[in-house]
Amino acid sequence: MRITRYAAAIAATGVVLAGCSSDAGETTEDAAGGGAEVAEDVSFDEGTTMAELAESGTITVGTKFDQPGFGLAGPDGVPEGFDVEIAELIAAELGIATDDIEWVETVSANRESFIQNGDVDMVVATYTINDARKELIDFAGPYYEAGQDIMVAAGNPLGIEGPDDLAGQNVCSVEGSTPAEEIRTNYPEATLTLFDVYSKCADALRNGQVDAVTTDNVILTGLVAGAPDEFELVGNPFTEEPYGIGITKGDDEFRSFINDTLEASFEDGSWAEAWDRTAGAITGTDAPEPPSVDRY
Ligand code: GLU
Hints:
It is a single chain. This protein is an alpha/beta fold and about 300 residues long. It folds into 2 domains: about 1-125 and about 245-285, Periplasmic binding protein-like II (D-Maltodextrin-Binding Protein, domain 2, 3-Layer(aba) Sandwich), CATH 3.40.190; about 150-235, 3-Layer(aba) Sandwich (D-Maltodextrin-Binding Protein, domain 2). It has 12 helices and 13 strands. It has helices at about 1-15, 30, 50-55, 80-95, 110-115, 130-135, 180-185, 200-205, 215-225, 250-270, 270-275, 280-285, and strands at about 60-65, 65, 70-75, 80, 100-105, 120-125, 135-145, 150-155, 170-175, 190-195, 210-215, 230-235, 240-250. Strands 10-9-11-8-12 form a 5-stranded mixed β-sheet, with helices on both faces. A hairpin with a 5-residue loop joins strand 3 and strand 4 (about 80). Helix 4 crosses helix 10 (about 250-270) and helix 4 packs antiparallel against helix 11 (about 270-275). The termini are far apart. Bound molecules: glutamic acid (GLU). Glutamic acid binds near residues 108, 126, 178, 179 and 215. This is ABC transporter substrate-binding protein. It comes from Modestobacter caceresii. One of its GO terms (biological process) is amino acid transport. Belongs to the bacterial solute-binding protein 3 family.
């Protein structure tokens, strides 16, 4: 039922009112993102982040609010999507129910600083693991492998088949993102227009201000699903974007705990179920093989 409502909302409205999070009287199980069972009687070593979070009974999670399938806030401000459900699985393992998660919108450029300043306990936000970011924060995961792709106007009037065709074109991406950096570094003949969130790039493509939008394929797929008559995906990914969960640098115990939780979800099917309910419901694709966690 949740799948149907979610997919129908995306397909019917174009602008995505994925809201089914305010049902009163949900069981603990329902409330935890459609499946995650909230652990009871949890106990963690004193002084660890896990012990602190379990004791407080709440966790603050940074995620995207405008990315259908991964993190999309409904009218009540509560987000839904694959990233949201991954966060819910981790919270559940700490004994924290979905209703007790505090969601904070993080955009691409402020994720590291939000973690460093303690504004959030973790970031689950289509967040590519890379060495530059690892200087500032640490990553658990990956829990998904995306790739950079291009979205163009329906019918692809300019015949853009890959990043080389962006030379001389105006392409939109987001400040502080790896796709923006990729264009700046490797495709300098493209003109880059930057916003803070991808939904503004979609608007710019819609009104002809830019010729293309570039970011991860799964983000673009969510945008195309909302406006299939207006946009299309080129479908030729040209980078690797392993998605990790950002946490405070040096918190190795928390990182191991999240990695253990991810691996358990890969094995017991809850990761695949989360995919099917969210991103998979938009793309119409089965959950892929889960990636291998990198315990660096
Ligand atoms: N995964 C890429 C990144 O972390 C692009 C998506 C995003 O901006 O969130 O920068």
